[in-house]
């Protein structure tokens, strides 16, 4: 490209930022035809899509998405176009971005997840979690890489999960003991008949036995990976899933077992930490899971819970990965469809 051509492209790109921010659809289309760069950010790293989303110009957002603007581009402050639409309450622009993100992830996300699994198989992630030693300390359960397997700040969330699961009593299944927070909360419901816990880590299992979980009258501990032990289990009124060191594909695989595991009208919930470092990506993954569960015959509602007060400046001290960065937790309340729902 000659320097004159470069200058021209630079000018059209700068004009595109302005047209996108002002919501001038005709101008945006002209500039795209003239070769303006749809991906480039301005001095603040704001792409044309972010600028249009921030001001709620839904037709421009749709035109840019259609022309190939990446829905998931992040600026230096770690925000994407969807974050701007969401924060400003621009519903139409938000819906267009959510739709684009969901469609793209349903198709391309599969490739990304397969890559992730391959990395693990190739050993790029270090020792697999179940082969690492884990250590309990004040308010934490950590793996060998100083990553938080479970942390006490999640206690109110686990109590809220237990409330959803045990509301109707009956037989409850929890996958992943960790610090036993959800299990302790489940034990508080006298309406439950049985309480089954699947746990795969030998150190965690040892801790469960040392702390008396093996002697509780209605508790049945199943030591093993859920992938291996599920076939030996029955059906449940409430199922909770919260493992560690697994990926989205594992969660999906577990979801495929739900039609067999849940009784009619049974309740399912999972620790909703998918993409919890970006608010909009998290919303996209809430939508994807809800769609996937709907295919399996479950309805999903997300109950918003504030988490800001659960965290303080000391929460992440000494923790390698800050796995939660959002202000709101969306607790998934999923239920098998009854005949009335059909
Ligand atoms: C995040 S912790 C669970 C925390 C728990 N919800 C609580 O309230 O304390 C995850 C647990 O899942 C266990 N785990 C990991 N992979 C598993 C698998 N495939 N099957 C069963 N348990 C697994 C881990 O050893 C760990 O104890």
TrEMBL record:
Location of the protein in the cell: Cytoplasm; Nucleus
Any idea which UniProt keywords this protein has?
A: ANK repeat, Cytoplasm, Methyltransferase, Nucleus, S-adenosyl-L-methionine, Transferase
Q: What is this protein called?
A: Protein arginine N-methyltransferase 2
RMT2 domain mapped to chain residues: 120-342
Note the subunit structure. Answer: Monomer.
Can you tell which superkingdom this protein's organism belongs to? Eukaryota
This chain's function reads: S-adenosyl-L-methionine-dependent protein-arginine N-methyltransferase that methylates the delta-nitrogen atom of arginine residues to form N5-methylarginine (type IV) in target proteins. Monomethylates ribosomal protein L12.
Annotated ANK repeat ranges:
44-76
Q: Which residues form a coiled coil?
A: none
Assign the protein's first listed, main location to one coarse class: cytoplasm
């Amino acid at each position: 490209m000659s320097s004159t051509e470069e200058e021209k492209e630079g000018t059209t790109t700068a004009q595109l930022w302005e047209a996108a921010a002002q919501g001038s659809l005709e101008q945006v289309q002209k500039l795209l035809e003239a070769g303006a760069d749809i991906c480039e950010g301005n001095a603040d790293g704001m792409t044309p899509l972010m600028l249009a989303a921030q001001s709620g110009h839904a037709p421009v957002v749709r035109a840019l998405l259609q022309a190939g603007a990446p829905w998931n581009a992040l600026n230096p402050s770690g925000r994407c176009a969807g974050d701007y639409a969401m924060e400003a309450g621009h519903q139409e622009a938000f819906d267009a971005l959510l739709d684009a993100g969901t469609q793209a992830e349903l198709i391309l996300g599969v490739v990304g997840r397969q890559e992730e699994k391959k990395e693990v198989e190739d050993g790029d992630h270090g020792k697999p979690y179940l082969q690492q030693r884990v250590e309990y300390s004040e308010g934490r359960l950590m793996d060998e890489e100083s990553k938080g397997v479970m942390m006490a700040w999640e206690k109110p969330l686990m109590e809220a999960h237990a409330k959803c699961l045990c509301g109707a009593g009956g037989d409850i299944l929890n996958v992943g003991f960790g610090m036993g927070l959800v299990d302790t909360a489940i034990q508080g419901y006298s309406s439950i008949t049985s309480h089954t816990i699947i746990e795969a880590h030998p150190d965690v299992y040892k801790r469960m036995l040392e702390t008396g979980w093996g002697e509780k009258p209605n508790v049945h501990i199943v030591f093993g990976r859920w992938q291996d032990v599920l076939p030996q289990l029955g059906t449940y009124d409430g199922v909770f899933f919260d493992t560690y060191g697994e990926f989205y594909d594992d969660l999906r695989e577990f979801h495929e077992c739900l039609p067999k595991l849940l009784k009619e009208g049974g309740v399912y919930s999972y620790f909703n930490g998918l993409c919890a470092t970006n608010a909009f990506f998290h919303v996209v993954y809430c939508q994807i899971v809800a769609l996937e569960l709907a295919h399996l015959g479950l309805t999903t509602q997300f109950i918003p819970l504030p988490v800001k007060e659960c965290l303080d400046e000391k929460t992440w001290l000494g923790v390698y990965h800050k796995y939660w960065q959002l202000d709101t937790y969306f607790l998934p309340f999923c239920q098998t469809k009854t005949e009335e729902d059909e």
